[in-house]
Amino acid sequence: GTTATASSFHAPNVVNGATRTYVPSNAIDGDLATFWNDDTQSAYPDTPTATAPAAVALAGVGFASISDGVPTAFTVQTWDGAAWVTQADITGNTALTRWIPFAAAVSTTQVRVVITADQDGSFSRIAELTP
What we know:
single chain, mainly beta, two-stranded antiparallel ribbon, 0% helix
């Protein structure tokens, strides 16, 4: 029942003869071969959001990107029912995959990533965002 939305996403295209999609749900599908790709080249912030059908307890999130769109500066935020609360502020990221711990566990229905820079100043890409 978890869904995903984003501030934008790129239209499908053909890569090596196969049609590739970049929809927000790719970031929560459990498949590192698919990914969300924003559609605002060199314009920030880029914001994918995952929404669970019921509150979940989170001590942090798992994060994965792909080699040519790694977000280098971003915050991870959770929804407290009234406002977005920053749980982690990441700068200088070069990791394709990483665990992002929160200072304390939270109960939330939504997690979003607010990307303000990526490695090549082009498109932001997230392959997976997991609890």
